[in-house]
Design brief:
Elements: H1 2-36, H2 43-75, E1 91-94, E2 97-101, E3 106-110, E4 113-118, H3 123-128, E5 136-139, E6 142-149
Parallel strand pairs: 2-4
Antiparallel strand pairs: 1-2, 1-6, 3-4, 5-6
Protein name: 3-oxoacyl-ACP synthase
Organism: Mucilaginibacter psychrotolerans
Region (Disordered): 29-58
């Protein structure tokens, strides 16, 4: 089970790195666009183009900042060891799916199985936290039974 957690951790790292790379590329493209925009006889067009490029850069800087926060959160998680109760870094199997408590990365596929990477601060993450095998809870009209925690 620890091997699965390590692989899920690696998938989360890849997810964050992909987001960081996409944001960095978009920032570079927006800056390139602003640099290539030359003053024309329609002066307002130049200023509007530069402002739009700046807004795009700011939006992508915000996305890069969020991805950096996700990376920091991941670095605080141990991908090895076995947990008795659900906590950050735990893999929790329920009757309604398997959840890896780390970051909100959505559905991850590994060895033909689907796992949901969820943040400890998400509604499902908060419900799972501190629970152990055999515990039950309800969320959004669904009843969950925890089958295993590792």
């Amino acid at each position: 089970m620890s091997d699965i957690k390590e692989q899920l951790y690696a998938l989360c790292i890849t997810y964050v790195r992909t987001r960081m790379h996409a944001a960095e590329q978009a920032i570079a493209e927006a800056q390139q666009s602003a640099n290539n925009d030359t003053k024309s006889s329609a002066g307002d067009k130049y200023e509007t183009g530069r402002e739009m490029a700046q807004q795009e850069t700011n939006r992508n800087l915000s996305q890069l900042n969020e991805a950096n926060k996700l990376m920091v959160a991941l670095q605080q998680i141990s991908a090895v060891g076995k947990a008795v109760t659900a906590e950050a870094g735990s893999l929790v199997t329920t009757n309604n799916g398997a959840f890896y408590i780390a970051i909100s990365a959505g559905s991850l596929q590994l060895n033909g199985m689907h796992y949901f990477a969820v943040s400890p601060a998400s509604p499902i993450g908060m419900q799972l936290k501190g629970k152990s095998a055999g515990d039950k809870f309800a969320l959004n009209g669904k009843n969950y039974v925890i089958e295993a925690v590792s």
